[in-house]
Structures are given as C-alpha cells and as structure tokens.
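Before any further analysis, we paired sequence with structure tokens, yielding the entry below:
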Amino acid sequence: MDRRELNRMFDALAPAPGREAELLDRLLRNDTRRRRPMKNWKRVVIGVAAAALLVTGAAAATVTGVSQRLLAYLGVTPEDSQAAELLIPGAMAVDITKEDNGAVFHVSQVLRDRTSIMVLADFTAPEGVSLWMGGTDDEPPFIGSESLYGGGNHYFMDEAGEKIDLGLSSAYDYRWEFLEDDDPMDNHVSVVFLVKLPQGDLISGKAASMRIPVGSLTYATVNQETGLPRRIEVYPGQWSCDVPLPQKDIGWSQPADAFVGRLDGADITIKGAYLSPVNLLVTVGREGGEKLFGDAEVRWWYLLNLSEDDIILKDKDGNLVPLAPAYLGGGIIGDEEALLMYRLADVTDPARLQGGSITLSLDCGAVTLPLDDLAPVEP
C-alpha cells in the first residue's frame, strides 16, 4: 500500500484525532486486502490562510446558467444542453474579487448539491509571472488543501454573516483542482474549490455562505534524495473571501432498511440513498456488535472503502449508470452510521434512476436496493 492510497483511505474514512498511528499500523499489516495500486501522490496546493482577512467584492445572487468551464470540469460537452439544464437550479452566478500582492483572485460561480459544493475561480498574477507548478501528462498538477480532517479556515455562515457550527463529521473536507490550461506557463490558472459534504443536508436552510481559505500558491513535490514531501511557494499572498451558497437541493432521495449481513456481531444495513445529477450518496447503518476499536474498527473501515467496481447503479430500464473512478469519500458517523460518496461518470437526470437499483458488494454480503421510491428532495 503506497502513501497515496493511505491518504485516500484516511481522507475518506477519517478516525478520531489521535488514532492515526494505531490504525495506520493495522492497515499496513492488512494491505493484502487492497485491490488496486494508486498513482504517485504528488499534489499541488493552495495554502490555507492562517488568519482571518477582510473580504472585498460583492456577490450577485443570480442564476444565469452554468459556466461552460464548470460543465467541462464535469465532463459535459457544449452540445449537451439537457445536462446543463439539470444543474441550473443548483447554480449561482457571483462576482467576487480579492486582490493581494499584485495578484487577483476572482470567483464567478457556485454549484452545489447535498454532497458537494463547487466554486469556479480564476487566479491571475502580474504579467510576466509564470504560475507553472510542475506535473506531467501522466500526473497533472493538483491544487488542494488536503487536511486529514478538513475544517481549518473553511467554514459556513448564516444569513447574518456569523460563523456557525453545523456539526459536520470529520470526513468533511475541501480541496482545489486545476482546470485544463492551454498555457500552463503563463500568469493565469482557473480552479475549482471542491467541498465534500458527507452530511450535506445539515447545511440546507442554515448556511447562507461559506469562507474560502486562499493562501500562498504552493505546490507539493517529493525530495528525490530523501523521498519526503516538500512544498515550494509559487506566489505568496492571501485572497480568502466569502461566497454565497445556492439554497436549492437538486437531488432525489429515498429512505431504506435493506439488510446486507453481519460484521463483528453487528447488523449492516443500507439506510438510504441520495442521487443528484452529479453525485451518489449511500448511507450504511451498523447496529449492535462490538464497539468500534481495534480489529473491529479496521474491518468496518475496509467494509466501507469501496471502489466504483463494488457498487452498481442501474436506471429504470436496467441500463448501467457508470460511476467515475474519482471516489469523493464519506465518513463514519459515530458507531452506527457511515456515508459513501461517489461521482457519476456523466451528468444524469435523477428521474431516469427512479425505478432503477443500487447493488452493493460488501465483504459481509451483497444487497440490491430498488429505487422505486426515489423522489425529489423537498426545497
């Protein structure tokens, strides 16, 4: 198991603080369970701002369509107007500008469903400055703040602009991702700030906006002599800002109580499913059995660390709806619940999935959940 794979495991199913060393040791001793090798773990990051900053710029809370750049990020072609229409209710056009150290950070759009928030932004340095941050065709640069527990200087606010604690699980996290760049050596990059929300329903009706932490443009690489990571600063500054959040949930959901099997004496069930045009969320319940510590906790983690090959989604006509290789993550909520998040390979109308099914293949058993009762989430 390489470090990239471990990062994915810990990021998706974060333990309680202070438990990393014990669980890492157990995972390394059980690495024969892993099915697929992971690529090199080089990362490019925008550093998190260390202190609260004044925010400039105004947000225009209007819905004018979805940016073609954001659609391209989701794999939607300009000709696919139907896919774009599915996303419009969850999109908000904004115009927020923050300047520091001669560079400009500009936010133009926000898109959300229950499980994720995507913010489209541009970073422009002065003419003559190159923002090249390494990477190859096989391993492109990656912008992100991949804190093991998320949180940090990213937070949500109510309508009055006051910071609020929504009680999100430790697996909630955020990161930055590059968009395709025709000239990576120039002074401009376009990025998406991606927030994953295993308990995203908690923000509905409560969070009016969120803080984006934007610090020095930095990338992480590996010291070839020591094999240890090191960070290289490309452009210093602070551009943190607040962005409004669309309030409509564009997803469909269905409660469930489908028994899967038993693990360490506990009953494992599927408690519900959520589908938006871009994401799938499955809630897994655990009742009874051993307390979550030691080997029991490690087995619970492995049970939930599923690849897109372990879950099959079909529409009402029985056609396979493919999932993207990018696993968004999830998290364990106490001793009794876990959430699994997946990105759909293509933007898909949830109405097409009503009457379809989800099949999960877990080590303790397999189950097929009919989606006969899948219905739009109430606004």
Summary: Confidence is low (pLDDT under 50) at residues 1-63, 138-152. The first strand starts at residue 43 and ends at 46.
